[in-house]
Amino acid sequence: MDVILVPGFWLDASSWSGVTPALVEAGHRVHPLTLPGLESRDAPRAGIGLQDHVDFVAQVVDRFDEPVVLVGHSGGGAVIHGVADARPDRIARAVYVDSGPPGEGEPINDGLPDDGGEIPLPPWDAFEEADLIDLDDALRAEFEARAIPQPKGVAVDGIRLTHERRFDVPATVIACEFPSQVLRDAMAAGEPWVGELARIKDLELVDLPTGHWPQFTRPKELGAAIVQALRDR
User: Fold this and answer.
1) For the chain, what is the radius of gyration of the CA atoms?
2) Residue 11: φ, ψ to 5°
3) Euclidean distance between CA atoms 53 and 48, whole angstroms
4) Domain AB hydrolase-1, which positions (predicted)?
5) Rounded Cα distance, 212 and 8, in Å
6) Burial, 209: exposed, middle or buried (Cβ in 10 Å; 0-12, 13-18, 19+)?
7) CB 75 within 8 A of CB 107
């Protein structure tokens, strides 16, 4: 299958390099993306919002004759959910890597400190301890070296959702920071933060215990988990 890989904040297509070998070995065709404004540290970011990223990925989806798989890490999860809403017939499965689908009008993260129209990578002490599990000093240095400021609009814009058929798109959540049982319990309790997730008709939850960036801390295992999510698809 054609698998489109959508990175989270501060990252470009190269962030998936440790994950793609498992997918290629399994016979899939991989398409890691660099989203608008993330091309380089000098790229223009003013005026780029969440819908621009959704539209960009939707245009990539439109290039393929057959339905594709979307994989979104962190903030990329909101992007692929927006595409599932816009192109429900074109998505064979959505895979959320330590992320999930936001509800109508919700931003990805409107609390990150910005520098004008962009959001630089914050210092590590700004993150929760669970985010940083397995992200040792060498991996942190690698992350810092590749980090690109995120367009502010992508973080603060509320997502626009219009089609109920987005809930027909099969989905897998790969839970990293906390066990998938937390999601199950929250959905059973009707908690609002998982309201959109609970409405997906074909939902699979799997565990990959590590921090928020498994593409760095456990890339081979993440690749294997994505391959497993696509079994028999």
Assistant:
1) 16
2) -125, 155
3) 8
4) 3-222
5) 10
6) middle
7) no
Q: What share of the chain is helix, strand, coil (3-state, %, to 5)?
A: 40, 15, 45
**What is the enclosing helix (H) or strand (E) of 78?**
helix 75-86
Question: CA-CA distance, 74 to 96, in Å (whole number)?
Answer: 8
Kindly give the confidence (pLDDT) of every residue in the chain, 233 residues in length, as a single tens digit, with 9 standing for 90 and above.
999 999 999 999 999 999 999 999 999 999 999 999 999 999 999 999 999 999 999 999 999 999 999 999 999 999 999 999 999 999 999 999 999 999 999 999 999 999 999 999 999 999 999 999 999 999 999 999 999 999 999 999 999 999 999 999 999 999 999 999 999 999 999 999 999 999 999 999 999 999 999 999 999 999 999 999 998 65
- The answer to whether the beta carbons of residues 212 and 98 sit under 8 Å apart is yes
The separation between CA 96 and the C-alpha centre of its own chain, rounded to angstroms, equals 6
Partnered with residue 49 across adjacent β-strands are 153
Which tokens sit at 1? 């299958």
User: ∠ at Cα 81 (175, 70), nearest 5°?
Assistant: 75
Dmax (CA) of the chain = 46
Q: What is the DSSP letter of 132?
A: G
Q: Which amino acid is at 159?
A: I
User: Please, what CATH class does the domain formed by 2-229 belong to?
Assistant: alpha beta
Q: Which amino acid is at 56?
A: F
DSSP assignment, residue 31? E
DSSP label at 175? E
Cβ partners under 8 Å of residue 59, min gap 6: none
